[in-house]
Task: structure prediction
Amino acid sequence: MEGVHVAGLRFAALLQSGPPWLEPAWVALSSAADPRHLFTAAFPLCWWLGPAPGAALLWGALVAEWLNVVLKWLLFGERPFWWVHESGMAAREPLGLRQFPVTCETGPGSPSGHCMVTGAALWPLVSALSSLVSARSGSPVLRIIPFAAYILLMVAVGLSRVFVLAHFPHQVVAGILAGAVLGWGLQGRTPGSPRAFACAALVLPLSALILRWVLRAAGLDIDWCGSPPRSCVPAPWLCPRPTAAVPRRSLRLAAQWCSSAAWLRRDSRPLASLWRDAGSALGLALAAASPAPRLGPWQRLAGAAAAVAAVQGLHRLREPQDATLWYGSSALRYAAGPWIVASLLPRLLAALGRVGGAPHRE
Result:
């Protein structure tokens, strides 16, 4: 794999040597494609455009993220920002590579989660839009446009991840292909019962944690860091249980080679993704258990704005510093989001509509 990694870093250097005005665009696109935005922004908007596409988007996102965590644990995958130093390439062949606030992901790198999760979540929406365009226009050419836009978006996201040194090119290609295949496979297969979503909330994280335990028992513990000088001082949560049994750990490497400790985010860890997925599945179960009332166009428009504001506000609340409390509060927030969007807000808007439409009494 060394030749693949070297070629990937040279390609990243070529991207970074491009026009300076492109740099903010690449960084912004990489940040916007973070899978958590599918849960906190894309889902609230999409659900109010149509409950079925919204549920399909969230279901695709959480299943894809769970599978992405499993694949990363099995494949590991180096990340460019640490491999360039660990391999000695930075000393042999200075490329002038730069890091950014979105660079320092703390989990393994293969396949790209940004590409895989985004690709799987958006596939049912693109397919539905393509069918709608075809039905309205009858043109097979126009039917292709949504899929062409989808491909261009995924390629751009992949290039942005290479640009910021979060992934090698082969990792983003693997993520794009896996996301498209998974999105196609999940199309039309979104569960509709609260019990199915509740089972998913239990089975998805439990199965991944069992796999993680098996890997650790086999001596393949890739999550816990060792005890390098820089790892634990600026970010103690990176090293909850030091061990020197296997020196190469994704968390240790991220902490060691990240240019700024402030760029290391706890929510980029694989375990954080699992709790996000479990919470979101539980939130879908709560929403499915109390179906939303029918609303008019203006109510739906107001609901979309209120849903995005409510979920964004929920995730901007102050987070606890303790790791256990942080994971617990994260799961609760992601569980509350779908319930607020698909159950609480529709009922509030329906109640306000009834009050506003009632005749005035003296």
About this structure: Residues 224-248 have pLDDT under 50 and may be disordered. The chain has 15 helices and no strands.
